[in-house]
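Hey everyone, long-time lurker, first post.

I ran two proteins through the pipeline my lab uses and got sequence/structure pairs for each. Pasting them in order. The first:
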Amino acid sequence: MTRPASLALDAPPPNLGEVLDFMRLIWAVDHALQKTSRRMKSAIGVTGPQRLVIRIVARFPGIPAGHIARLLHVHPSTLTGILKRLERQGLIRRRPDPKDRRRAFLGITEKGRRIDAAGAGTVEAAVERVISRAPRAKLEGAGEILIDLAAALTEPD
């Protein structure tokens, strides 16, 4: 079976319409994030989301897990899994809240500081390269669209 010329692998993508073209770009970013995250796991020992948690804990020593979950827009149980893996690897440490044993304050270890310092080949290195070249207005517009899209995706239909 031959492929139509408009769908040839080396041809530019067909115009799918504004919504589908935008969604196609979102999927491309998602795929690239996942691929880079797997590469980071091999190269520096943590995934993209794990490194993001390390970076936040390094900047805000003593931050409670609930604050990180809200910052990252993830369910606390999702964050719990990430924190357990990071703690098992010796990259972060938990200090129980003496007033509320259900809460813990998070800190970075020396080993975690080395991951925090790593830069090349990370998701944020790519993001930094792109945003450093983007005009401020374009960056602000993209941010507004992403905020609106995240809100629309979390709203019930």
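...and the second, right after it:
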Amino acid sequence: MEKNKVTIVTHDNKFHRDDIFAVAVLMMILEQDHNVAVIRTRDPEIISRADYVVDVGGVSDPDKNRFDHHQQGGAGVRENDIPYSALGLVWKKFGEIVCGGREIADSLEQSLVQTLDADDNGIYLYEPKIPGVYPYELSDFFRALVPSWKEGFDHVDDSFMEAVSYAKVLLEREIIKHRDKFEARGAVEEAYKNAPDKRLIVLDTYYPSGEFLSKFPEPLFVVFPRNDGVWVLDTIQKDEISFTPRKNLPKTWAGKRDKELEDVTGVPGAIFSHNNLFIAFAKTKEAILKMAEIALHTNE
């Protein structure tokens, strides 16, 4: 059966993160059943005939698939004061569909969509700690795909579609990662529930666990096997976005490996402890559990 043709219109010339990702989301949904044509223009007549319009046209009307935020008064602001850009407007209507579930869509709304909406609306979310040094962000990567002044804009539409292709790959990967993360939650919470000492959570399979365990007050460490058979002793952070452990590993372990670490811990099979005392490794489960017990009972 021949697919129906649908058109997505966005603005021409220089492109930005919100129109890149808004078009990517729509294409991920529409390409399954339609032939999708992306047109970059500001021509009102072409805009009026489009099936979907993002980041151009001066209209925000999800029922008519119009997703612009440049009109007077914008297109709404979240409770946390981050305004909607074209991406946020598209995500509000189609996020759950493209993610296959509300929980994944809400998680990505917070971790990805809102950061890009903030960037597009001139809101900087990070305070630089070192003057003149800034984090290289996702937005910087996509800015690098915009042609420079010297390259000119003769092929800017091709550059835009290349950026959309990268955005689609990223969204597909993030959806998979978030889906699998939430699938792991049950196993992690069950391990917490059954732990005889809730300061130490032991997993017999690796699961992404830090985000879930940091929501409980007791866990200090989690133990799990790596895919190569090495066992890991990892610290639980003070909160899900912090890199500060609730309890560090013993200071005497810092940067030591192999025999030197075996000697200082008294644990045969100890492999390595990070210099910053947030993670350590051992050859066996028995060895890593002994290291975990030492870490629990060391007051430093």
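Reply from user beta_strand_b:
Welcome! Quick read of the second one: The CA atoms of residues 20 and 161 lie 8 Å apart. The radius of gyration is 25 Å.
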